[in-house]
Design brief:
Order of helices and strands of chain A: HHHH
CATH class of chain A: Mainly Alpha
Number of strands of chain A: 0
Radius of gyration of chain A: 11 Å
Low-confidence stretches of chain A: none
Distance between the termini of chain A: 10 Å
Structural class of chain A: mainly alpha
Shape of chain A: globular
Strand content of chain B: 25-35%
CATH superfamily of the largest domain in chain B: ANL, N-terminal domain
CATH topology of the largest domain in chain B: Rossmann fold
Shape of chain B: globular
CATH architecture of chain A: Orthogonal Bundle
Number of domains of chain A: 1
Oligomer: heterodimer
Helix content of chain B: 25-40%
Mean pLDDT of chain A: 88
Mean pLDDT of chain B: 91
Number of domains of chain B: 2
Low-confidence stretches of chain B: none
Largest interface: A-B, 22 and 19 residues
Distance between the termini of chain B: 52 Å
Strand content of chain A: under 5%
Amino acid sequence: MTQQITEWLFDWFESRVPGLELKVDENYIDKGVIDSFGIIELVESIETQFSIRLDQNDLQSLELFSVGGLAAIIARKQ
Amino acid sequence: MTDNALAILKKRFADSRDEILLSTLDGEDFTYGQIYANAKKLADDWRGQGVLKGDTVAFVLPNCPGYLSAYLACAIGGFVANPVVFELLDESINYILDLAQPKLVVRDAPGLDATLPVPDDFSFDAEPDKAFVNIFSSGTTGNPKGICHSFGSIIGNAGSFARLSGMNEKTRLYHVLPMAYMAGFQNTLICPLLAGGRIVLGPGFSPASAIDFWRRPIEQKVNFLILTPSVASALSRLNRDPDIAEKIADIEQVQTTAGQLTSGIRQQFLETFGKPLQDCYGVTELGGPFTTQSAKDARDEDNVGRVIPEMEISVLSSTASEGELWIKTPFVMLGYLTKQGLEPPVLSDGFMATGDVAEFKGGKLAITGRTKDMIIKGGINVAPIAIENTISKIADVKDVAVIGVKHEFWGEIIVACIQPQSMDNANALKLSVQNHCAKNLAAIHRPDHIAIVEVFPRALNGKIQKHVLRQEIGAKLKAG
């Protein structure tokens, strides 16, 4: 299941930045992949795609800033 | 009106000498006296490096606590402050420095020392009608334009706007805007200072800081926020705390500036935080901010509010109700910076055209459109021509037009409309334009969307009709 989530996340980033090389544990904010509007879109896309609601703890967790961390948050919520 | 600027500033430092002016991110507080002492030391250091009264000092710095003392050092020494937006590409920074011809370029953030002795007298060598600051903004030619203001116009406009906004000694303002731009300088540093208030520094707004935005304002008992509409929208959409409205109940005012505030952003912010967004309007050439809404009006009115008393408004009506906005103010700029000296503003009977279309009813101003070909994304002016020049250098591009399209979050986004040499390689060209822009344009100037156009709509003289493109592309983007 986590594998599928990870693939969906990589596809989401690829759709924003074609040709992007992003590692599973890499901080996509530090890498400058998305801006403040991008993170809103990412959060809202995740909530729609996986029918979950990220809470304050999720948004303040360092896990939020890597594909691997995001996949773990989503998997826990499902 | 601007002649007493020196007396106003001196009195403020004398009256508030032992009150806190600045709270830093490191948890340190500095009084008005301490900030003055640090600014005085900086001015003396710069004099020691050969800077004389009337010389320009450029700051190429990110937001930092020392930024305020750098501005004040210029007031103390009679120097001209020339902030440079830190995030610009080297090419633009060099253009600005070449134009400004600074005697000194400050690239290391000035530190603040709480142990410096506070002098008994607060003196300033700045002269009310002489150049005090050059603020750079995107010009219509694509190059940054330097807008030079006198000390009198900055202090006069800031004092008046602070009064209109209801700032006073109890104001605790949270500062998150770039200090090199007018809003990050005038609205958020000089206004609270003149009002005798406190500035609480926050981190520059970013995806990471957006998520944990409210912790520091709550801890620091902030009661006044100034945001851009994009930041306000981000905060509403990322909030997941059901009790947030209660936690920030002590915040009395939330102003938005530097960008178009849509009804959607207003409504979402009010629903999420229980606070109305009070829209402001200003023009850098005319001294900065000069209108704001009251908290009461902001709950149900879509305008930018009342105007400071020194301003005269004229709406040259093109229809029954709205027209181009012209302003007469004692706080107008000295002029645009050019290699040949200052180019004075073009005035007609003392009025200057703003390039905006407005309605003025019942003492309240509403901005309804724009006559200029300028994109305002997230509060930053972006000149289409600079992007068009960059993209037109790609061999496979036959023609290009860059337009702003309305956007819920950014106010406007940048759309590059490309006519390829051949439609056969249109998709490959999109990628190539993206890569070219990533290499040659600062992040804020890169197109958000690239649209392929087979044939541009053109006027009889061959000029691309951007208003038609804006409608067509806007409709396509809205439809997804």
